[in-house]
Automatic annotation (TrEMBL):
Organism placement in taxonomy: Bacteria, Bacillati, Actinomycetota, Actinomycetes, Kitasatosporales
Signal peptide: 1-28
Keywords (A to Z) from UniProt: Signal
Protein name stated in the entry: Peptidase inhibitor family I36
Source domain of life: Bacteria
Taxonomic source organism: Streptomyces longisporus
Length: 124
């Protein structure tokens, strides 16, 4: 009986340790800034305040992302993490052609997206 009790106690302890590790790692990777998830580049609604609005476009994967129906001035936030070379570019052409603006890691600004047809996330 004593052996079963020890086994049950060890199993409970191991389960608690795994649960705690899972919870800790989820919070450690949570780098949400102004509603933009960590690892993403976000575009906010036209004319909206980045402090009080949520992103309308969220891009996670490296490479070009074509835009549609984005006009006027929008906040764009580069919330990627890692190397300082994790940049985002705003491009006048589709598929990442004719890039005119580079947004550095953890930077944001207000940009006129009327001529912009794609956003490129660059691998660090």
């Amino acid at each position: 009986m004593r052996r079963i009790t020890r086994g049950a106690a060890a199993l409970a302890l191991a389960t608690a340790a795994i649960a705690a590790a899972g919870t800790g790692s989820a919070h450690a990777n949570d780098r949400t800034v102004y509603g933009c998830p960590g690892g993403a580049v976000c575009i906010y609604p036209e004319g909206a305040d980045i402090h009080t609005s949520s992103p309308t476009n969220i891009f996670y994967s490296y490479g070009a992302h074509n835009l549609s129906n984005q006009f006027g001035y929008h906040y764009v936030l580069n919330n990627q993490y890692g190397s300082a070379n994790a940049t985002a570019q705003l491009c006048n052409g589709y598929n990442g052609a004719d890039c005119t603006v580079t947004i550095g890691l953890n930077e944001f600004g207000v940009y006129n997206l009327t001529p912009v047809n794609s956003v490129v996330l660059n691998r660090p």
